[in-house]
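Notes, Module 5: Reading structure tokens.

Key idea: the token line is not a picture. It is a compressed description, and you learn to read it the same way you learned to read a sequence, by spotting repeated patterns. We will look at two proteins. The first is printed below with its tokens.
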Amino acid sequence: MSSPPSQHDAFDQAHSTAPLKRAMSTRHLVMLSLGGAIGTGLFLGSGEVIAQTGPIGAIIAYILGGLIAYMVMLCLGELAVHMPESGSFGSYANQFIGPATGYMITWLYWLTWTATLGTEFTAAALLMQEWFPQVSVWLWTIIFAAIVFILNISSTRLFAESEFWLSLVKVITVICFIILGLLAIFGFIPFQGYESAPLFSNLTTQGWFPQGIFPIFATMLIVNFAFSGTELIGVAAGETEDPAKNVPKAINAAIWRLLIFFVGTIIVISALLPYQDAGLNANHSISSSPFVTVFSFIGIPHAEDIIRFVIITALLSAANSGLYAASRMMYSLSMKKQLPRLFSRLSQSGTPIIAIIVTMFGALPGLLSEQFAPETIFKNLLGIAAFTMVVVWMSICLSQFNFRRRWYKAGHTNAELKFVAPLFPIVPILGFIFCFITGISMATDKDMLPGFFGCLIFIAACYISYAVFYKPKKNQ
């Protein structure tokens, strides 16, 4: 006996938003995901994590962060293959948690990347000012915003290609960093301050956990933010050729590459530098990242300039991905009639032009950095972006958990799914719990408390606005 059609709607229809063009391949998806993830979290945040937790603590933190990201991506993969949509998380939360939560998650993910745009443009502008101190930070912010805006409004295909090449620059840099670092560790090339190969003695010189166990958990927000961007695969599923084939391949490829890149980077930095020196220096100069120190000590000429260029490229790549993701959230809200139809208007090349323009205003906080302390703005925007990302990840795990339970209840089996997240229900439950703990850790950092409470207020405002404007009336 078959179930009523209404029970099957959530399962047996692929909800793809037709007007957006399916222009992305597996290589575009993988690089989009890597591009979103390899940015400030790796080039800048990694040193801070090592300085706070010690070498072994940092390695554990990044492995744990990678496993959390992998669990979340497995849940997302199952949902995205079955229902490839542009604006995926909000739609999944809408169907499998509740309409108000779906509305909130869509807006929260928009806020995640909009806040990130501010961090990326601010950081890139500060780096350019180190080269050109006479040029204002706000001017560089406008220039970078214009570049990213043009790449996004051109076409989905051109955006994907630009992101592929921007991401390739930093991927090659990270690979070179790990290879040269390992050569120095094993004594094949000289390293300043060492007569013989340092090997891995630095990892435990000050003990296994010189700062104790707690900092490992306290830094998990930074670590999880470093892996954020992997979920862009889900956003792009609605604009991907053959999602059933390309999305699972991209998820596996992206996660394992990120884990190798991140953990490999941490091992190299920790083995070659005393952990106390891994963080940014007293002047908080962004170019004093551990990448610069290691390349300089190996003897790479103009190491600081090279890494500054790479980090600027990385920041623009992350901003490029962020504007793409945030604009698709607005597009999705408009398609659900929760924003004016204007926001789902497409340009001739098939991009949501109004949504992109409005999202660009998220870069405005970067313009304030010349008048106010740029590091303070940077840290608060980073905290907001990290916390909102963790909440979105929690919603992905809960959506997949509820989806699978309904799937079984409707009489379906795993064999009918084109992609199955393994070890149900362990994977979504553990993913949710770890993300929850990570989010709460933000409250332990006094500097991030304003951002933490700001995010909670934003979430409450989303639920209230949904209840006031969009909640279906009982007589309907």
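Here is the second protein, with the sequence above and the tokens below, as before.
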Amino acid sequence: MLLSRFARPVLLSLALISGPALAQDLPTPEGEALLTVTGAITVTNDGDAAVFDREMLAALDPVTFETTTIWTDGTQSFTGVPLAQLLDRLGAEGSAVSATAVNDYAIEIPAEDWEGDPDAEGPIVAYLHNDAPMSLRGKGPLWIVYPYDSDPAFRSEVIYSRSIWQLDRIEVLP
């Protein structure tokens, strides 16, 4: 009986603390906001959304790879955060994401594109192209890029259509 008398207030206190603690786990952007993630996520920093500036994305252990694309000439270098890592950082649990560009073009990317073998290459949210930030005119500031040359499966019309540039919003779909 003594345990239940004290257990309830302790559990209630822990529940109240965990909500704000999760919100504080993701810093608030100090620079220009480049990406807003909403939907089925548990870690936020702006209401129900997670908002990122370039420095916040760069702090998520970025990767760089070289690949050719159908939109550029020759081999290109891209640096960004793996989509899987970004979504994992936000506690996302969904079957797909809806990725939307500045001009409201939207495409759905299924979870199979980022889930699975953690050593397998997959799409990144690129913020550098050939070591430089991308302008809006240059397909930036963010571009979902796949390592097209690493796997023939990445060289298909379906994957090319998921390679959305001028990305500014992601919604994690249940």
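Summary for the second protein:
- The beta strands are 33-39, 50-53, 63-67, 76-82, 96-101, 106-110, 124-129, 132-133, 143-145, 167-173.
- The helical segments are 2-24, 54-58, 83-89, 157-162.
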